[in-house]
Amino acid sequence: MRLILSSFLILIGLFCATLATAQNPFAPVVRVNDRVITQFELTQRLRMMRALRTPGASEELALDLLIEDRLRQDELARTGITLTDEQIREGMEEFAGRANMTADQFMAALRQEGVEPETFRDFVSVGLAWRNYVALRFGPRAQVTEEEIDRRIALAGNRGGLRVLLSEIILPNTPEFAARTQANLRQIQQITTIGGFSNAASQFSVGPSRERGGRLDWLPLSNLPPQLRQLILSLQPGEISEPIPVQNALIIFQLRAVEETEAEDAGVSAMDYAMFFIPGGRTDATLAEAASIRGQADTCDDLYGLAKNLPEDRLQREIQTPDQIPQDIAIELARLDANESSVALTRGNNLMLLMLCGRTPDLGQDIDREAIRRALVNERVAALADGFLADLRADAVIVRQ
Questions:
Q1: pLDDT (tens digit, 9 = 90+) per residue, 213-256?
Q2: Which domains does the chain have, with CATH numbers?
Q3: CA 89 to CA 101: how far, in whole Å?
Q4: N or C: which end of the chain has fewer CB within 10 A?
Q5: b or e along 231-259 (b: 16 or more beta carbons within 10 Å of the residue's beta carbon)?
Q6: Cα dihedral: 40, 41, 43, 47 (round 10)
Q7: Which residues contact 120 (CB under 8 A, 6 or more apart)?
């Protein structure tokens, strides 16, 4: 009888201890070397991932990312790398700025999702310190040769031309959409496949190309505005660009393929284009009016007759160098051949019928080799850092509590 009673009391004790642990948010769930991850930290990371719409957000993924953070913290502590409060604050402002928010506004938005400010601060500080560390450690080993830059440029000079196959996602960039756009952007930036980007375009993009999963047709590289040309050249097929701000929107591109063409690619020194504005925004009625205009205008000159009795500001024609053209217009013109038109853009409460009148070739255009060099170095540093982190994990003692 005493044995049965003793066993019963032991079971009761074990049950109470387990229940107390489960109710303690600061109970350790994993030990990584000499550091622990608490239940509170795991819950907070998962909430933040869900608030940022991280693909595949789950407790398992949150725990995996926290383990990697502990490995980074171990290495940073070993090497003595730390950040000042000012540096951390700058990092928080930079991160929040991607959503057109201040750090305080961003933390307030996270707080509504149950995420404490300290969680965001810790996330930023570890990531920023690690970025600085790997740049110092691997930067000298990540140098690239002139031959590698030449291969990336892929003979884009006078010896031939390039054309690129892109996909795009267009996100609204206005105050009322800021939080949603930032959440969607975080999800998009973690995509690593062409199919995943296409699915995200169908789900999130507000551009006409969403019906095709964001896929664009082949474009001559020289059609693109200079800044975008350099950005695209810095990508590998499957990689995703940083968001490009245009009027009231952000555009993210994915490079699907690059192909050399036989035709020489002389570049563009000036663009001649016309903008026919139709009041009323993007509606069925304004789109129908635009279709009627397009049906009657074979060239830009034909637009003058159609705008004859309208206010002068309804039709504007410009001849500008590529760097003078507004980014969203330049990107849209890149898709057009002479005398082709588009109704993808708006200005204020006006639907814009945009027509390309012609391009003036430029035979003396240079490529920014330093921009390509920086992109190649960053790729190499990231690859070396990933391999180093995998080695740290293999050597670590990781114990689930």
A1: 999 999 888 888 877 887 888 888 889 998 988 888 899 999 99
A2: 35-156+374-401 (1.10.4030.10), 164-265 (3.10.50.40), 268-361 (3.10.50)
A3: 14
A4: N
A5: bbbbbeeeebbebbebeebbbbbbbbebe
A6: 130
A7: 48, 92, 106, 107, 110
